[in-house]
Design brief:
Number of domains: 1
Order of helices and strands: HHHHHHHHHH
Number of helices: 10
Distance between the termini: 65 Å
Region (Disordered): 274-312
Oligomer: single chain
Strand content: under 5%
Helix content: 55-70%
Radius of gyration: 39 Å
């Protein structure tokens, strides 16, 4: 899905913009690269035609070796050209990866400025519509309220795109040819912690509609209004900032009342005497000595407890 906010943020950083332009140019070159059969297939085709002609007419074609070598060379040139353009695409993808790794913070700063613009425009539009909450209320109010309502719908989409672009830039850029699963997992954890929206926001105390919008990424007018009223609304400029925010809003249990592990004196345990039965024998540890006498029994073997405590 195209995201104009993400495209604008990347275009605002010269290093990223240049790398992406080169990648686009490399991809266009690859689409225009000649697509030929393999050199081996081209050579074999000439050889097969010569054999077919000989079997059909009995005469051997002239310059079969020359023609086969020429076909091989031409196909090899086309193959090398295509491989070179493929290499350019791979190198350009890595250039974009490196540019995003080194300069994503600048793109995120651009998103932060856009967030300020969107929220400022939203506050003005909400003041214009007053207490209207539905399209019917706005139509009844008339005047500037209708235009303000339309503007709010646009700002809702803008805020949603800003937040989606934010997560893409904050997560580590995907390695060319690699999977985005690890990156997506990090973003999901950040969203569950309600991080990256309002400084110091505790997900346990945030409104339910706000938690839902943060987790799903679907921005509503209600969430736009709520965000516009939060003084701490921001766009993080690094993943470290997100992690620090989570640590601040959800401190570890050790910061509060922890488990008391100081030494304590406990009463000595009283052990019951060992039970000696009729079949018991004394340990015979030294075979060179006489067998010890049997100990005096002090207990009897009772019936074992049933495995099933209750019978029905």
């Amino acid at each position: 899905m195209n995201n104009p906010e993400l495209a604008a943020a990347r275009a605002a950083v010269p290093q990223i913009a240049t790398a992406e332009k080169l990648l686009q140019a490399a991809k266009e070159l690859l689409t225009k690269a000649p697509v030929e059969e393999s050199p081996e297939a081209a050579r074999e085709a000439v050889i097969e035609r010569a054999a077919d002609a000989f079997l059909a007419g009995g005469a051997w074609p002239k310059q079969v070796g020359h023609d086969a070598a020429k076909a091989y060379a031409e196909a090899d040139v086309a193959l090398i050209e295509r491989q070179a353009r493929q290499r350019a695409v791979i190198r350009a993808e890595w250039a974009v990866h490196d540019a995003l790794t080194d300069h994503s913070s600048a793109a995120l700063e651009h998103l932060g400025k856009r967030l300020e613009e969107v929220l400022s425009a939203a506050r003005t539009a909400f003041e214009t519509i007053g207490g209207a909450r539905t399209a019917e209320d706005v139509i009844s109010a008339g005047g500037d309220a209708v235009a303000a309502w339309t503007r709010l719908r646009e700002l809702t989409a803008d805020l949603e795109n800003i937040r989606r672009a934010q997560w893409i830039l904050l997560a580590a850029p995907r390695v060319p040819g690699g999977s985005a699963s690890d990156r997506d997992a990090r973003v999901h954890l950040w969203k569950r912690a309600a991080a990256g929206h309002v400084r110091g926001l505790n997900p346990d105390t945030a409104p339910a509609f706000a938690r839902d919008a943060i987790l799903t990424g679907r921005v509503t007018l209600e969430f736009l209004r709520w965000t516009a009223t939060q003084e701490g609304a921001f766009v993080p400029t690094s993943d470290d900032e997100v992690e620090a925010e989570i640590a601040t809003s959800r401190p570890d249990a050790s910061d509060g009342e922890g488990l008391d592990i100081s030494p304590a004196v406990v009463p000595a345990r009283e052990y019951r005497p060992s039970q000696v039965y009729d079949h018991s024998t004394a340990p015979h540890l030294d075979a060179s000595q006489p067998t010890p006498a049997k100990p005096t029994p002090n207990a009897t073997v009772g019936d074992p407890a049933p495995f099933v405590p209750h019978y029905t």
